[in-house]
Amino acid sequence: MALLNSLLLRLRGLASPAGVVEVLAGRRAVTTELALAIALVSMFALGVGGWLWWWLAGMSAVTPGVTASTVFVRSALFGTAVSFGLWLGWLLIAFAVLQRVTGAAVPMERLLREAGLATAPLALGVLMVVPYLSFGIGVAVLGAWVGSMQGAL
What we know:
Number of helices: 7
Radius of gyration: 18 Å
Largest sheet: none
Structural class: mainly alpha
Oligomer: single chain
C-alpha cells in the first residue's frame, strides 16, 4: 500500500507542468516506480489504440456477438495486464543473461528505470485510430519500442 501511495504522490508531482520540466531538464531523477508507471500507461494506451481502431473501423459489424465493451476489456485491460507481466518476465530473463554474459552485477533498479522509459513509444499506439494509417502507425510504434528497448539494454 505504501508503494502505491508513493507512486500516486510522484505521479501527481509529475502531472504538474513544473514536474515534467524538472524531469526533462534532469533536475529530478526518474524513479523506478515512475518508470514502471510510464510502462504501464504506455501499454494501456496501445491497447486503447487497438480498441479504438477496432471500434471506428466498423469491425463490430464483421464480428457479430462481440460488443465494444468486451473488446475493450480484452484489448485494453486484459492485454495491458498480460503484456506488462510478460514484459517484466522478459526483463528478468534479460537481467540474468546480462549478468551471465558480462560477469558484472547489473543493478535491477537501473534496468527497470531504463526499460520503463523505453516503453514510452508504445503510448503513440493510441494514434492507431487514424484511418488509413492505423497499420503503419502500429508497426512504427512497435518498431520504435523494439529500438528503444535495445538501446535501454
